[in-house]
Every structure is written in structure tokens, then in C-alpha cells.
Amino acid sequence: MAYKLIAVDLDDSLLGTDLKISDRNKKALSKAAEKGVKITIATGRMYKSALPYIKELGIEVPVLAYQGAYIKEPGTGRTLVRKEVPREYVLSLIEDCKKDNLHLQIYTEDTYYFAQDNEYSRFYENQSGVKGMEVGDLMQVADCEPIKLLIIDRPETISALYSKYNEAFSGRLQTVVSRPIYLEFTHIEATKGRALEQLATMLGIEREAVIAIGDSYNDISMIEYAGLGVAMGNSPEDVKEKADYVTSTNAEDGVAEIIEKFVLGDVIGK
Asked: 162, CA 20 to 30 Å: which among 7, 105, 188, 209?
């Protein structure tokens, strides 16, 4: 199969633990692009947070951000898809998080808001490279049209909250654990798989010619959609079970391994 489109997740997939793209991964992506393969990023991050990596890789293909709720064309800055979370769910989540003293972040385009600065907001800023806005009471921004909401907490708390909200919002919102400490809420139609299908259709590329690479539960939909769905070696076992191929970990340049094996047909070296 001659693959024509590669969609790769950022955190814990393309990026190492230092939040950088390794030389080997960068070389592999560059060589694939030289062969005419289209490269894009599919991330739960806001577009602004992904932008430094988009520029570093010279990506011109529309990028999938916010778990697929947002598709934007880097070259023109044109927004192709934007799906917001209905206000009734925003109000419900704000009230729940206030009652249970949970850290909630609300995202609109390239800005995100939280009630009080704390260890979670500082951790997120360090990971994303984007500073949010402390507003005291999230009800102040409840009238906005958010693209995503995010709860950050300990893994055991996130696991319990996922069970609660996945049932409560079933058929109404997408509820995913993107990292052990992140619980994300997006529009019911906003998944990486659906967004990747939309992008492939825009580009006139058949499903069989698509490679999707990711590591977490929010990547399952695109792993299942793609002709070659790849799970990173550092993925949970139930994510690996959904994949056609399991590559090495993000610390071992698993993305480059896939491109070298299935696109380049050679090893370009670390």
C-alpha cells in the first residue's frame, strides 16, 4: 500500500518526555513529505499549543486540534471545522466542579480559562506552552462557546470521574481520558477519527492510504479509522489491542520506526 497521509498525535507519541521532536522523528517525517506523503498533527491540544510543532515540521495540511473539534489550515489560518460544547453542559460542569473543588479549564479558540491558579494550572501551562487566564469564577465565561473543557486531577480521581461522566453524557458529549490526569469534554461529533475522515475526504485520500499514530484512549477512533492504525509502545494495553501495529515507545522514536518501515522502506538512522 502506498500511504498518502500520516496523522500523528503529539504528547507521548511524536514528542519525547522533553516535549521535543527527536531528530530521527523529524527526519522520517521530512523524508515522507519529500515522497509526497501529506503530514498532519492530530492532537487534543489547542491549536495555539500545537503551532510551534506545526511550524517546526513545516506542516501545510490542515491540522486536527481539540480532539478533532477544530480543523485549521496553517498556511491560510482558515478554520475549516469548529464544534462547540453546548452551553447547558458547560454550566453543569462548572457547577459540579465548584461543588467538588475540581480544577476545570474552559477553552475558546486560542484562550483557556480557569477559576484559580494552582498546581494543575501551572503544570498544564508548562506542558502546553500556553498561559491561561485566571477568572475567579468560571461563570464569568459561561456564555462563551467553548471548544473543549478539561478537568485535571490525580489519576484515580480522573478514572472515577470518567465513569461518572461517560454515563451521564452518553450520546451527548465526547468524554475521554487523554492522559491519566486529563478528562476532556468535547462536542459529541468531535473525535480524532471523525476529523481524520473529514480531512481525508477533503484531500481525496482513501481510508486505506491513511496512517494514524497515537498512544491514548482519545486516539482509538483514528487508530480504528486509518488503513494502518498504530499504537505507541507506551500505550495502555487496551489501546494496543485496537491497533494494526504496535511500534516502539515515544522515547524510542516509535513514530520514525513506522515511517521507515511502511513509507520509506529503509532505516534512516537515529
From this structure: 7
